[in-house]
Amino acid sequence: MKQRTSRRPTVNLVINGNPQVLEVGVEVQPWHTLNYTLREVLSLKGTKVGCSHGGCGSCTVLREGKPILSCTTLTIECNGASIMTIEGLRDTSVMTAGGMRGTTTGNLHPLQQAFIDNYAFECGMCTSGMILSAEALLNSNPDPTEDDIKEALSGNLCRCGVYPNIVKAVHEAAKVKKND
Amino acid sequence: MTKFHYIGKPIKRLDGFDKVTGTAKFMQDMEVPGMLTGKILYSPHAHARIKRIITDKAERVPGVAAVVTHNDLPPGIDEISGLEPGMVLPPTAVPPYLFRGWGLQPDAIVRCMGSPVAAVAANTEEAATEALGLIEVEYEPLPAVFDAEEALKPGAPQLYPDVPGNIVFDWKQEMGNVENGFKEADLVFEEVGETQPQSHLTPDTRGAIAWWEGERLVICTATMSAYPSLLPAMAAAFKLPESKVKIYGPPYMGGSYGGRAFNEACFVLVAVLLARKAGRPVRVKLTREEDMLALTRCSTRLHAKIGVKRDGTITAVEYRAFLNPGPWFYPPWVNRYFTHLFKVIKCDNIKARATLAPTNIPFSGGPFRGFAYMEAFLVAQPILKRISQQLGIDYLKLLQQSFWRTGDKVPNGPGRYSVLSSSGIDEAIEKGRQLIDWDGPTGPDEYIGAGYCLPGSAQFPSNVILRLNRDGSIQLETGVIEIGAGQYTTLTYMAAEAIGAPPEVINMTRSFDTETQPWDGGQRSERTTYSTGLAIVEAAKELRQKIFNVASKKLGAKADELELEEGVVFVKADPAKKMPLSAVGLPIVATGAFVPDPERPWASGPVVSFVRVTVDKETGQVTPTKLVILNDVGRAINPPVVHTQNMGTLSAGIGYALTEEVIWDSDGRVLNANPQFYHTPTILDVPDFHSEIIEPVDQIGPFGAKGAGEKVLTPTALAISAAVYNALKTNVNTPITPDKLLKALRKTE
Ligand code: FES
Ligand code: FES
Predict the structure, then answer these.
(1) pLDDT by residue (tens digit) across B413-425?
(2) Nearest listed ligand to the Cα of residue B204
């Protein structure tokens, strides 16, 4: 963590477990959205931007474990919060060697693995948001019904339209998580 | 049956890891050191002349590096034609100019709301936005027209001085003798139908980064037709050889669905002009609203007349179409539209006339999961519904008359025919009939519908390079970008199969790059598996031959006595004599090409959709409850991905049938350019769904594969509209929204 001496106000965030201190007026402006801060200031490009209007869900991240739309959330509103993005889901401390890209297992989160195994994406632009919305669901409801899943993901648009596979993937991940 | 090592079974997608971990890079994630932000100023008028445009104040905003207007366009830009190889247009047509209609216009006339009039490049988005607000434009509003039939009337507002009467072309063609055909008919049915503009709503919006390196132009953008369209356009615009224009894509495209085909050139040009003036890289990234205004599916009206005998035999068909692409048109689209008109209904006597008239609606001449299928197939099937009802003939029986079967000569371009190499249509219909329980009972307010479509395929060349490295690994180079349909996986596994090497040792270069990757016709019209696949098969043959030539010395056998399987070269007669690919010890390069040949049979697969819907006659709500898709794909290289494509495309079909429409007010202002007001299916709207792959034996495509994905949209929308027809006994134009349905219901009661 950087040491700060200036007297400017700061926004303190914990992003994927790493503390971040952002100076207001320098790294963060009062009008910056969390989406902008994550993508443009912190270079965490896994969080996508689809509409900037709260209409598509592709910018979903978790704040204190709850899904929020980063495009309609101001960074300064998040002071003190812990934020999880798609980059924080995978356990990068485990390195798996060998295998092709895309079939590597081991360090992927059960949802990530289930999305691969169930072909739950096409272009992949909605995937980060879908997975995080699903993660929030599984944390609060480890044994969701099909309706629960659909309800929880109804704010995440997939224009490629692979919804049935997404439902399957979330079901499968729920099972894996429970057995863990 | 041929045994395959790698294809034809479920293959995990190679792009999976990147996409589930958020490391996949899309256009929105691309950056270049020192790049500026470009922002565009759009016209608030549907039709106006720019009398004056003053940019001084904008230029003085701190951080602004360049402001461009129509005055910065290179000379001759309005004469660049977008005609692609193999495309036929009627001789009287106005040439399909590429930079017309949308974008900065050399004649300083804006022809739709949301057409660019100026652009700014600045250090920050804030500075660019501030500068846009300081550009002063004085417009002289001109009368506007929004309907193609209206635009053709005398006295209608004129869009272009060189297009008198707004007739870009008027295309007529007759097959057989339609007059006699109608004389033979016992009954004549007529219907008028319309297709609405549908927004692609690609998850990633349009974007481009451009810069100049002296006289060399570099562009990064996610387009589906870099080589056939954008490259020649940019080279012509700046009078450069194509070799001095480098266009490359991000590793992944955030959705396309046809929306990355056409006006890319007009939009990329803005970034290029800004970069030239600023002397630095400039990124232009459209907002969602801007993107939704930049291109939609074409708006069309089709009058159809069908003559039929009492036994259901169709004796004559006549079409009259009005095409409204907004201010300009996409040439290949028009070409395809005319082709499809002649194959929607199979009949010896067909006459068609299509007139294309530009108007001031938002730019809409684009393909959408299909090159004009919907627009051509839309009206015929409701008429068949009526015929079936009036004559008491099973709808599927009537539909079956129009199916093209193996060996049929199918209309394929004006005056051209191609032999259909195989067709699984009868199997598809039989299976579908059972799966939807066509003859079975229906619940209260439940109705069944079916739709069918035979796609075309864009016949463009593809080239492939295969490079064997000294360690035995292989580089696969194509000009292909992954648009989401699993291209990287499919092509890598096809290469593995064709070479005889495990897919694990093959790496396919991510994305196109016109400087380093070979020419490819683009990711459109379901052509990649087929065309690039055939080029891979060619290249693999050459690579194997070269490997055998080297290995023959080492294994002490003649080259033609050798075989290569699973990465091991061996003597066929004595498999113990073998060596791994790494023992070849020499880098080898091989190439392969696919060149379309109209004389060759044509591999295209029909697709059928069956649906059950409930129609609530109180609220007007239509709810699909079960959907069955049967898709003839020749051979499924990766079956789960075909199912995924079926499911994805049907979702856009449901949207088209029930909710999706770009709407504008009487001034041409779009009212719903935002996903909040433009309703596409959510996870709650996709019903119980069954997908079947039909795999007739086909000798033409690579391993017997045909195209798979986009064709599912049209029959799905048609099936839903047919089911609603059954409920109402009248046709309702899509999208069948509750208000339209209730109005139609009131009329029939
Ligand atoms: S980008 Fe945030 S909801 Fe669309
Ligand atoms: S995978 Fe493309 S939007 Fe969902």
Answers:
(1) 667 788 999 999 9
(2) 2
